[in-house]
Design a protein that fits this description.
The chain is of the alpha/beta class. Helix content is 48%, strand content 14%. Strand 4, helix 5 and strand 5 form a beta-alpha-beta unit. Helix 4 packs parallel to helix 5 and helix 5 runs parallel beside helix 7. The longest helix has 28 residues. Bound molecules: NADP nicotinamide-adenine-dinucleotide phosphate. The site of NADP nicotinamide-adenine-dinucleotide phosphate (NAP) has 26 residues, from helix 2 and helix 5.
Length: 256
Amino acid sequence: MSDISRDCLTEERVVLITGAARRIGARTAEIFHQQGYRVLIHCHHSLSDAETLAHTLNTARSNSAFVLQADLNCAEAIHALAASVLSQHPRLDVLVNNASSFYATPLASVSEQQWLDLMGSNAHAPLFLCQALAPRLRDSQGSIVNLTDMNINRGMAGFSAYTMAKAALQAMTRSLARELAPQVRVNAVSPGAILWPEHASDPIIHAKEQAAILAGIPMARLGTPDDIAQTVFFLAHHAHYVTGQTWRVDGGRGLS
Ligand SMILES: NC(=O)c1ccc[n+]([C@@H]2O[C@H](COP(=O)([O-])OP(=O)(O)OC[C@H]3O[C@@H](n4cnc5c(N)ncnc54)[C@H](OP(=O)(O)O)[C@@H]3O)[C@@H](O)[C@H]2O)c1
C-alpha cells in the first residue's frame, strides 16, 4: 500500500459511478452519498443533470460530489477519466460500472459501428476502468459492482449485440473476482425491468410488449432505481464475503 493511500484511509470513502447523471446511476449516487461516501459522478451527454445532482449533494454536504465527463467509447477518454480520478482522489473504495448503451440490433441490419458502441460502453470500458483503478481499489480493500441484465440468460430477440456485451461483462465479473481476490471483491447486479428506455417518439419496447413483460413478473410491478441502487450498495459495502456473484434483481421474472 502506498503512503498516500495509507494516509487517506481515514478520510471519507469514495465511489466512482459511471453513467450516474440520471436514472439508476443517479439513484445509486444518492444512496452512496447518504451513507457518507464522496461520489464521483461520471457522465457523457447529461452534463447538466450531473451538475444538478452534484450541486444537490454538495449542498447537503460540502465537497462530497464531483462530476467527471467522458465518452466511454473512446480509449483516450477512459484513460483520462481514470487518471483524473487517481490524481484528484487519493482514495477509491468502489467502482460501479453502470453506464450502458442500449438499443435494438436486428440480425439483418446490425452494423460494425453498433457492435463497437454496445461493446464499448458495456464491456470494453468497464474492463479498462478496472485495469486502471484496481491498484487504488486494492489499497482500500475495495470492490467493483457491474450492472448487467437478466436478459442475458433468457435471450432477447433483436438485441443480440447488447446481450452479448452484457454477457461479456458478467464473464469479466467472475474472472476479475478470482484475479483481484482477496483484496478487491467483484460482483454484478442483474436488473430485470426497472425503467423503460427513453425513446418517446419511437419506443424500443412498445406498450403491448411492456404489458406482456409486466404480466411475467411475479412481484407484479416494475422494479425501481432504488431496488437496484440498494443492492449495489449492499454488495459494495456490506457483503464482505461475497465475490464473483451476479445478483438478479428482477421481481422473480427470471423464475419463469
Ligand atoms: N433500466 C432498466 O430497466 C435496466 C434493465 C436491465 C439492465 N439495466 C442496466 O442497469 C444500468 C442502468 O440502467 P439505466 O436504464 O439507468 O441506464 P441508461 O439510462 O440507459 O444509461 C445510463 C448512462 O449510460 C451512459 N452512457 C451510455 N453510453 C455511454 C458512453 N459511450 N460513454 C459514457 N457514458 C455512456 C449515459 O450517460 P449520459 O446520459 O451522460 O450520456 C446514460 O445516461 C445499465 O447498465 C443498464 O444496462 C437497466
